Amino acid sequence: MAWLCLITAGLVEVVFALSLKYNEGFTKLIPSVVTLISGGASLFLLMTAIKYLPVGTAYAVWTGMGAVGVAILGIVIFKESADWYRLLSLFFVIIGIVGLKLSDTA
User: Fold this and answer.
1) What is the 3-state secondary structure (H, E, C) of the chain?
2) Sequence ranges of the domains in the chain
3) What is the pLDDT of residues 9-24, one digit of tens each?
4) Sorting pLDDT into bands at 50, 70 and 90, what band is 8?
C-alpha cells in the first residue's frame, strides 16, 4: 500500500509541476486551483508513504518520477528537445527508481 501511495504521489507531482507552467504566477484561476490541490495531494501521499518506507528511498522515487514525467511530457506537449543525451539521462533516472524499488523490502 505504501508503494501505491508513493507511485500515486509521483504521478500527482507531474500534474503539479505542469500546472505551474499554466497558472502564470497564480494569475489563472483554474490552473492555480489545480496547482494547489495537486501539490497538497502529492505531499500528503508522500507523507503517507514515508510512514512505511525509508525516507531517502521515498523522496528519491517521488522526485525522480516527477522529473522524468515532466521531462517526457515537456518533450511531447511543449516540443522540448528529445536528443539522445537527454533520453539516455532520463533512462538512467528510471533505472535508479527501479533499483530503489528493488532494494526495498517494504
Assistant:
1) CHHHHHHHHHHHHHHHHHHHHHHCCCCCHHHHHHHHHHHHHHHHHHHHHHCCCCHHHHHHHHHHHHHHHHHHHHHHHCCCCCCHHHHHHHHHHHHHHHHHHHHCCC
2) 2-103
3) 999 999 999 999 999 9
4) very high
